[in-house]
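Sequence in, structure out. Go.
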Amino acid sequence: MMNRMVVLSYNSGIDDDINRLFDELKITGFTKIFGAHGAGGAGWKLGTPVFPGTNNVVLIVLPAEQIEPLERAIATLKKEFLKNPGIAMFSVPVEVHGVVKFLEERAESDGDNRVED
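Output:
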């Protein structure tokens, strides 16, 4: 099974919407980094009076076949906003090592597709 690392960067103001999306897609394992600064399609976000706002960044490892449903859900979410909410999604192939690999194998043998720390 081929896994991919998804990097999702989005305006921190829509964090509840992203959490709801993860719940709907049953994405239960991820790492979230709060308060990231940067620039993109929605402009600069530096957490300052001149460039207000910040981004959150989420790292998610998913089987390749789960990437398209996530992409579609993000596209649908973007349409809910009148103004560009500033969501960017990237993915790259990833190898899983160590404890996570062991947990994945155990979950597959148990019929459970979740990986928990």
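Check: The first strand starts at residue 3 and ends at 11. The helical segments are 15-25, 67-79, 98-110.
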